[in-house]
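Observation: inputs received (chain + 2-(butylsulfanyl)adenosine).
Thought: call the complex predictor directly.
Action: predict_structure
Action Input:
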Amino acid sequence: MSKPASQKLSAARARHTELSQQLHRHNSLYHALDRPEISDADYDRLLQELLELERQFPELITADSPSQRIGSTPLDNFPSATHASPMLSLENAFGADDLRDFDARLKRFLAREEEIAYLCEMKLDGVAVALTYEQGKLIRGATRGDGSRGEEITQNLRTLSSIPLRLQGEHPERLEVRGEVYMELEAFRQLNEQRREEGETTFANPRNVTAGSLRQLDSRLTASRPLTISCYGIGAISGAEPATHFELLQALRSWGLRTNLETVRVANDIEQVIARYHELLELRDRLPFEIDGMVVKVNSRALQQELGEKSRTPRWAIACKFPPRQEQTVLESVRFQVGRTGAITPVANLTPVNVSGVTVSSASLHNWDEIERLGIRIGDRVVVERAGDVIPDIVKVLTEQRSGSEAKIPEPSECPACGSPVARAEGEVVPRCQGMSCPAKLKEALKHFCSRTAMDIDGLGDRLIDQLLRLELVKSVADLYRLQKEDLFQFDRMGERLAEKLLAAIEQSKTRSLERFLYALGIRHVGNHLAKVLSRQYGSLEALEAASLDELQATHEVGPQVAQSVVRFFADANNRSILAQLQELGVVPVTTAQPRGDKLQGKVFVFTGALERFSRKEGEALVEAQGGRASGSVSKKTDYVVAGPGAGSKLAKAGQLGIAVLDEEGFLQLVQQLEAE
Ligand code: IVH
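Observation:
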């Protein structure tokens, strides 16, 4: 018997609170205090657990959940940007009762009986940004980040044609405007379609692509993505302020900023707000973009000011969320997918059903714990839910509708792709194929090897890899480097030029960095970040191969699991043979490692301002090459602050704390001097 839903939810909530507290603590230890107590990998594990809880129980997601910060803490490569006033988030309401409570609360706070006029706006499901205009010129664009500071992504935001580079009309001298960047559904569908054709992985939902597109270091990529903005508020304004929020939106529009004025309504009391909520619920499925609720704001700016804000949310606004889109359908059968590591995951084949405009015919079942949790059987009537994602979730089984002919979902005893035996290790939620030459594993391994973040072999996507395998042209990643033009001509739609391009791309990949190469090998538990750590520490494939378990474990950020996995990888005769073949074929990963030393052992550097002589990454690499460490924030532990033009608060803090400040030239001299010694 499974526990009642409410009990599961409260257990999940308790764990969620605990995880949140831990993550918040570790996060501030790392970012604010520069004093981490756990490794990145351990942090990641906590975060993954939290994410999994939130996936199962979306109601646990709060505006201040650590999950909401993923990808929005400032990256090394984007300078950080302080907002004119904090970018707040909104409290959530879930329907008429919550809205009436909200209204009553405000009237109490204001000691007022008169009705309050509200503005009803759509809640766009995208990424919040702040745009700063001075003298009408766009001078800065930033992400929300932690609310006080975000990442400066001006170059990327400039590529959005809906963001004016100059304001129009009688605009204020200075303005920080806020809005939501998003991608329309049709554009999203087309993008995914194109990627599917090119054999690239597809995106889960428009919000993810938007966030990813905005955080590209190469703004040309951002430019190629059809993103749009809609502005809904301000952080600062000079001169006279409009009297109502509605007038503010009108003013924004008059200055050339995009708003959703057409769908905005002024409601004279909370009942009109509720009526508008129902209208928007109806409208939602006919909109060209995703909205996940309605935002209700007190219209009078004077009243807004009187109401003020709590720590992270304004008192004068609330987000009334929409219920998730659910439909019923039948679980017809279950198919099994084999991943790169041999993990066999169950996927539900559903009777196709239309869930508010999107035909849903399959859903991930994730693993056998999930199957157990749902108590699901083949033939069951189920409730599917689409939360803005393309792949929906099965949220409930309608057991009361069972006929008795439903069948249990078997755990495969052999690999569906190669027939090899499978094994489920203790503590794991999926079985894994044990076959040495499983074609499904090979396919996934090849896809991973060629992918953009790994060896980045342009043009070698899903479709071509499929053909390479079908024609048995490739039996391991080494075979990629043995391909000849004639081989490729056996493919559909392969001309001379395309074949040459492909071979050139393969050739080019021979000199990728060691870090990419290590990641491409698909060593278990070695993701992007650990590949970088290992590459920096060992500097060459040979050195890594020679490292003992103890040595590996002694490496900062490398835990026992990773160390073991690396050792096991190099111990495997098959892997060793492939590595030798790769080397023979001229695949020689390049190390960018500087001559290693320990002259800066224990020294902590902070880079700030616009660096002109070298990139932040290069500066950090120079420091790390001599055993030093780069940090994002200035504290008593900082030894040097390297300041480029435009350095602000970090430079000031260095002054207060009496920390040595170097300009770029001074820093380079210091490093050169050390290396020469
Ligand atoms: S107002 C102080 N209006 O929802 C007011 N937000 O947690 C803060 N959003 O981060 C936001 N549409 O990214 C506002 N019409 C709208 C919005 C909106 C989407 C997002 C925004 C914010 C989040 C609220």
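Thought: report the result.
Final Answer: The two ends are 71 Å apart (CA to CA). The CA atoms of residues 121 and 263 lie 7 Å apart.
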